[in-house]
Amino acid sequence: MTSTEQNRTIRNISAYLVEQLMKMKNCSRDEAVNLLIQTTVYEALMDTATDLYLESREAVFDILKEELAGNPSKLLML
Asked: Which of 48, 31, 39 is nearest to 75 (CA)?
């Protein structure tokens, strides 16, 4: 996968996560973006060495929900 494809995939997953956070938290896009960028999941998603971007967007959202619930153990299994 080229770096362009990696970046596109990461952007697509990030956009999905923002949309899901907006629904889950009943918040604005800006609030969802601010919440997302403060998470370990987002940090891992931006780090291509973790290969988190290779997971489905739904799987990444499940991991994000775990982190937000105070249980980051799913992320540690990657």
From this structure: 39
Q: Yes or no: say if 32 and 21 are a contact pair by the CB < 8 Å rule.
A: yes
Query: What CA–CA distance (Å, rounded) separates 39 from 57?
Result: 16
Helix, strand or coil, per DSSP, at residue 36: helix
CA atoms 24, 58, 68, 40: torsion sign: negative
pLDDT of residue 71: 82
What pLDDT is stored for residue 58 in this prediction? 97
Distances (CA, A) of 3 to 40, 47, 49, 58: 22, 12, 12, 22
